[in-house]
């Protein structure tokens, strides 16, 4: 790796993004399926989310956020703002009530959405199309798809953090070395 | 969930910990196997680690850190300090040079170490046994095993963060909402 290469950023490429998006259901399945309820309902205090809650949030995103917004951009451009996204839909009583059923549903919806995305055969001009976010204002389809990808990774990160911090006391003196617990990066 | 239950912390239980430890190889496999070299060698700038580097670090931990230290505690108690852990061994030229070979090696070593751990049939008295960390001082076997578990999750978190931040610019205005990019928690 030459010192001249910036490895901290990359431009959006559709195949790069779908490579990550296609992996997330299996990653969460490996991490969560079969864990005890105590792990699955762990949180970081107050109104923070548990791994179980987060999988519900990801399901709701597949249903109402990413591909529906992509369709709005392709059909209406920036003449019609996106619907607002409900960040608390996973707490509805109608949401699936076991992590196994949530993981199955997330995998099914993600597969279907990626099939639809592929079928659109998006061109560079399509990716440049502008939509209208109700709060953020003008955004492009390319930015929407990059956000879908980073949002997955954000929640994989959150789940790992929620689980790891369960042992904040149990690790004893090692807490000084564990960035997941101390909250520092490195 | 009653408001009286603290869901932010839990005491160490051997079966809880091995439940997480046994999952990590498959989680990393789902997340990383087959990704492009550009994703696998992404980092956060300077001397920060890439996903490829991190898998190498986890392999070295299986070889020289967790179970070797557990054996020292069981055999020598706190009369013999642990060897220092080399945090940079993954940069040795002898380390495996593809992520696929690293994932395979990590899975093999982890399986072997968990088999050995199980064969020890640790009692509560064993878990209470004290060892001597060269920098942290007295630690118990229980704390060592809790740290092994939290350390896995720390690095799953780190890999997700490194990958997600690749799109820090590509997400455009959404960067304000993505905690993986803004660096805030939630």
Oligomer state equals homodimer
Category by helix and strand content of chain A = mainly alpha
Q: Quick one: how many beta strands of chain A?
A: 2
Question: Largest protein interface?
Answer: A-B, 71 and 71 residues
| N-C termini distance of chain A | 20 Å
Largest sheet of chain A: 2 strands, antiparallel
Rg over CA atoms of chain A: 18 Å
Helix content of chain A: 40-55%
| Mean pLDDT across every amino acid position of chain A | 93
Low-confidence stretches of chain A: none
Strand content of chain A: under 5%
Spell out the helices and strands of chain A N to C: HHHHHHEEHH
Strand order of the largest sheet of chain A: 1-2
Shape of chain A, please?
Answer: globular
Task: Give me the number of helical elements of chain A.
Answer: 8
Blueprint (SSEs and pairs):
2 copies of one chain form a homodimer.
Chain A: H1 14-32, H2 37-40, H3 51-64, H4 66-76, H5 99-119, H6 124-127, E1 130-133, E2 137-140, H7 141-165, H8 179-182
Antiparallel strand pairs in A: 1-2
Helix pairs in contact in A: 1-5, 1-7, 3-4, 3-5, 4-7
